[in-house]
Design brief:
- Strands 7, 8, 9, 10, 11, 12, 13, 14, 15 and 16 form a ten-stranded antiparallel beta sheet that branches. Strands 1-2-3-4-5-6 form a six-stranded antiparallel beta sheet.
- It has 301 residues and is mainly beta.
- The protein is built from two helices and 16 strands.
- The longest helix has 16 residues.
Length: 301
């Protein structure tokens, strides 16, 4: 009988697929609570649960205060730690798990009450299984929603890519990794699409924060009024979608370009069809420690 051997890359892909399934919420599942993982599809030594990840970030010696039905974490000082996204990936022939968590009631160490501190825990696969290699209680900030104390919802669960939106990654020439995680918000009839940007610097090439990761802010990638347009209301429908690409620079992190298509509301009753030149370009600002708009053909509302 012929034996079929799987390549290392094929095995690696299977492992990462299992990580995505284990660490990502089911479609439609609310993400405003820290949910305990169910049994992972693939048992690997030391694979952390969501509750263990929160404990690793915020508590010493595994202490903590879970509350509610599904596991949620009260930090004991009026703050709540909220699970956001877990990502399994390979980089430089090493396998990693990174989880991002934020504080639901703001408390941003950088001084903005309207922003929420983002934290991370990172694990690396070794000969004895998964091992915690880094935690950081503040890697940057998320903007909280106007209606609720929530960050933008992750727009992918690792298994089903909503509307074809995928996590976009870019490896820099100096040995760092950029992740663009698709997300969306909804308020006042407008759905807003974008990406939360993260920088992984395992070799400490040019540290932005104390740990291995830095959150570099939100970039816009579309919007629509599908929930608030119809013949009865006499509101015309419009929808713009953006495609993200990285534009390398001679040194440092690359620029980000969002190329738009569709249509956009640019004034009362004025809907403009977008063309091939419509875009927003972002550059990294070292003082802000975030991506900021550099050029844009999209008029401000």
């Amino acid at each position: 009988m012929r034996t079929i051997r799987r390549s290392h890359k094929a095995m690696q892909a299977a492992v990462l697929l299992a990580l995505f399934a284990a660490f990502s919420p089911a479609v439609g599942q609310a993400q405003y609570r820290v949910i305990e993982n169910g049994p992972p599809h693939l048992k690997l030594p030391g694979m952390p649960t969501r509750s263990q990840i929160i404990r690793d970030i915020y508590f010493e010696k595994g202490a903590g205060t879970p509350s509610g039905g599904p596991v949620a974490f009260d930090l004991g000082d009026g703050r709540e730690a909220v699970w956001w996204y877990g990502h399994g990936f390979d980089f430089n022939d090493r396998d990693y798990i990174t989880a991002f968590v934020y504080l639901s009631r703001g408390d941003d160490p950088d001084g903005d009450d309207h922003l929420a501190s983002v934290a991370q825990a990172t694990y690396r696969m070794g000969s004895a299984g998964w091992r915690l290699i880094d935690t950081d209680g503040h890697i940057g900030s998320f903007a909280l929603g106007r209606i609720s104390e929530r960050a933008a919802d992750v727009d992918t669960d690792g298994r089903i890519q909503t509307d074809g939106r995928k996590v976009v990654r870019h490896e820099t020439a100096d040995g760092r990794l950029l992740l663009a995680v698709p997300a969306r918000t909804f308020a006042y009839g407008i759905e807003r699409l974008g990406y939360e940007m993260f920088l992984f610097d395992p070799n400490r090439v040019d540290p932005v924060r104390n740990g291995l990761w830095a959150a570099l802010g939100w970039v816009d990638a579309g919007a629509n009024n599908a929930a608030d347009c119809d013949e009865e209301s006499r509101r015309a429908c419009w929808a713009m979608t953006g495609s993200l690409s990285f534009v390398p620079r001679p040194a440092g992190v690359p620029d980000v370009k969002i190329s738009f298509s569709g249509s956009r509301l640019e004034g009362p009753g004025h809907i403009r069809k977008l063309g091939p030149d419509d875009h927003m370009s972002y550059s990294y600002d070292a003082d802000e420690r975030a991506y900021v708009v550099a050029t844009s053909t999209i008029a401000a509302n």
